[in-house]
Here is the input.
Amino acid sequence: MKILNMIENKYICNCKKYNLFEKDYIYWEDRETTSDELDIIKFIKNKFHIKDKNLLHIGIGNSKIASIFNEADKIVGITVSKGEFNFANKLNLSNYEIFLCDKYSENFINITQKFKFDFIIDTNLKSYSCCLKSFNYMFTNYLKILNLDGKIITSRKGMNWYKKLKPKLTFSLKKLFHYKLKEIEGDKSNILSLDEINKISTDNNLKLTYNERVLYLTK
Ligand SMILES: C[S@@+](CC[C@H](N)C(=O)[O-])C[C@H]1O[C@@H](n2cnc3c(N)ncnc32)[C@H](O)[C@@H]1O
Here is the structure.
């Protein structure tokens, strides 16, 4: 039996937040991989070798990344949805470890600091931030767990996406009453512009590389 990889979340900011962990909220486990993430997958396949590398996948959705890059040494997946977490665990992939955790929370670094990653794949780096302070905190944590020459990879479309998640009790004929994470209108300041990512890259001595679909920062 799998142990539930979940710790209560703590934050460095005082922003009001929904408790995404109090119920078994479903979200993206049954949905198609976004075209944003497909862009990243295609890019990685063409450009990098994943064999024997350590990958951190933030926002696992339907766990496509873990299913595809099975030659990786280790894939750690992070999600805020218990539905996604359960779905991922059922795949029973030996190199895949999944955590129910908010990437903007203090627990993120507690969970991930025992690993070092060659790739951090986060399709929606800033999309779900509660504030700039927490976004910067998350980014600093990413750098702490990234190997030298490691890469943080994101999607140009994902950089422009800015929905919020709200927990909801809902009804469908197939699932009857169930809990889900519903996307609601978010904050436009969570659009991650090229200017902003340029500044982040300069401030942190990272090499910025991008095309019209995918962007990555090298340590
Ligand atoms: C729109 S879904 C996309 C799923 C998948 N990345 C894809 O592109 O197909 C957004 C993903 O981000 C995750 N997510 C949202 N907010 C998060 C947060 N604060 N910390 C970690 N994961 C988060 C959700 O659990 C979900 O897996």
Remarks:
- The chain has one domain: 35-218.
- DSSP finds seven helices and nine strands in the chain.
